[in-house]
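hiii, so i know i said id send this last week but things got crazy w the move. better late than never?? heres the sequnce for the chain we talked about at the cafe, plus the structure i predicted for it. fair warning i was half asleep when i ran it
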Amino acid sequence: MPASVRPIRNRIQTIENTQKITRALEMVSAAKLKRIEGRLDFFRRYSGELNRLLGNLLSNPELMIPPLFKKRDSIKTFVLCVMTSDTGLCGSYNHRLLQVADDFINQYALEAEVQLVTVGKKGFGHFKRMGLPILETYVDLHGRFSFETAQRISQDLQRIFFSSLQIQLFVAYTQFKSLLHLKPTIEKFFEPPESPSTQPIDYIMEPDLPRILEELTARYFLARGQCILLEALISEHASRMMSMRQARDNAEELLEDLTLLKNKIRQASITTDIMEVVSAAESLKG
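okay and structure toks below
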């Protein structure tokens, strides 16, 4: 085998092996996405209904609403929960989200103190290198949805939010619109909702408003945390799936080019050998 052909064949073999890996990762991400995608629609609707119910209660002027549930104006600390992935190979998923989070920090750091809650190793490593204060961190999710983890995150965020009237809580995550539309966004984790009704709804409350608000808020925070965590995980799998598909397509194009180059070199080698045989035969005749 000509020396110039052997490295090309070795490179083709390497690319084919890489292509098998990217295909496997794409299939794994597609399976994980499909497994948890159905839950997202449920939690979106459930969280929306809890938000509507809270809005009806908190907007009733006849009820004595605790100060912790009222709109906050004098903010001294912004807490930002950033949801990234534990691993890479998901394209620009983490980079785009961290860029949005950095812009938020640069904007609000001039007004008040900014503290962080990180979900995923990528976000934790990024902000640790920046030397920013991290209140809580959650790692080793590995793209899997866990009710226990979602509950722990939601309870910690609820505790942080209600610890002071001068704290405002935001969450940075990637919204899942479709496979081709993943939107990094930052929004308030809890905002006292406004009632959609023009007239206050007269509820019969049992046992009393404080107990009802406590239970309803805990359920809302849990549903909100589950919904956002699911959005982040589905977006991660969608981004990884599309990245691996793009890598596989690029490998296919590269394989075609290398195969064509290999065939050209082989053809040139065969032509050279034929010319040498013909020249030798002509010389023997002479």
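btw The radius of gyration is 29 Å. thought thatd interest u
miss u guys!!
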